[in-house]
Amino acid sequence: MNNRIRWAGLIILNLTFIFLLLSGCINQGRGKRNVIIFHAGSLSVPFKKLAEEYRKSHPDINILLESAGSLVSARKITELKKSCDIMASADYFVIDELLIPEYADWSIKFATNEIVIAFTDRSEYSSAINSENWTDILLRDNVIYGRSDPDSDPCGYRSVLAVKLAEIYYGEPGLTEKILNKNKNFIRPKEVDLIALAESNAIDYMFQYKSVAIQHGFRFIELPSAINLSDPDRNDLYGSVSVDIAGRSPGERMQVKGDYINYSLTILRDAPMKAEAISFIGFMLSPAGEKIFRDCGQEPLVPPVTYRPGLIPEQLKKYFETEKTAI
């Protein structure tokens, strides 16, 4: 009988310990504040690093990252009515056209990029491709290339714009149609979805952001600045080409004109954790945040540029030069 009592006591003691441990974990979890960020796939690596660094000084805040093509992320808000605090897009156009003014009040352009042709050592003609012959190589019968979906991802419609600019730059009528009609079965929802295809040698080349190529260790060729959408001084040229993509509602189309690449973000008007979201963006715009972007192969805009600057939260205004903001 004594043994039975002793074992019963031990069981009760263990169960009590487990209950207290679980209660502590639950209470600790309840004490956390979750900041939800919908972001472009090409921001996955820098945002992961930003979140990790930010948590060191804000252990009570969880940064929850949800990656998708920028257009898909915007439609989660506008069509699916999903809640988030921050939306970070690979193109300011997505936020300014689809979220402002109904879902957000302002936006911040915070980083740049450029379109490159990325590949591996196993890609066909990897030792021969360069910034002048890349169109010829992509069109060869034994070469497969991939790109992302223009209706889902800014890299997708920027790839189309880059091809149209290449037709102008090289003076080759019909080049756009030839390239875009090839390998259509290797179009993916977002640019980072192409990485596995390239790593497995299912494709030889991909239209990709320079930062993503660097982050994942791909070789790449840089395209002329008249093509790669990296130079704000060439905006008149970039704007001479356009592409139609999925619009605000099902079946609707909208036109996107060429523009130099700039990433943008906003805090949603009904963000549950607005103060915490402002704090995270402040860290992102700080010198520490700028360094993380540079270390990830992506150049931050310094100072950043704002749309509707009068509505920017006061805590963030110190990061801007008024004369360089957009109205």
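the 2nd protein, sequnce then structure:
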Amino acid sequence: MTHEHAEADTPDPTATPPAQLLEVTAGYPGVTALEGVTLGLHPGRITALLGANGSGKSTLFSTLLGLVTPRSGTVEIFGRSPHRARRDNLVSFVPQHEAIDMTFPVSVEQVVTMGRYPHMGLTRRPRAADRKAVEDALAATGLDTYRRRGIGELSGGQRKRAFTARALAQDAPLMLLDEPFAGVDRTSERLLTDVLHRLRETGTSILVSTHHLDGVKDLADDVVLLHRRVLASGSPDEVLTEHNMARAFGAVIAEAG
């Protein structure tokens, strides 16, 4: 896949990080989910975001997307504000829980086509390039034979693949995925991992949160360990140590006790 942004709008991945947070504190009324988080993604790489439930992973995604405004600190995507980055189609997002009515009569192909809306303008009339992007995304996620199925007819793993296909069709240079492997079968997990690896080869930068620790070394180039703060970041071998795991996941046990 190739990124289809106008030349003036295309960020130089060598000049600015795909995403950067500097001393970001954020949360919700009465809750501080992120405290002084500083993090920069490397271009053209897959970064795994690890942390226990309540560690701030979903809040970090919401902050990157401009859905949560930091109490302090700065957030940039390719050197731009999250709102401008979304407007310029620089970031796509696969949420953990998709807010879609599974009883609504919408097909898999229609869901994936929604990813092309930023390219279609106000008419939302697909052109040849849009149709090809949808075809490619369906093929990449193994859903070409399911295109006419209603989204509510799919299994959990197939739905995750459909929403990933929608993000693929969007063709943004940064992709965020919040727990894409949660509740999916092994076949879908392997397929999604292969899709992300192929996407990385095109130069796309990817941030993916996951609880599947045993698959992180196969999935990611870089790992960030989060528990409200960044506890560790680096290569999988550097981060996935017994000491770091105890700091991240033992902290939750200690707080619960």
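The radius of gyration is 18 Å. The first strand starts at residue 19 and ends at 28.
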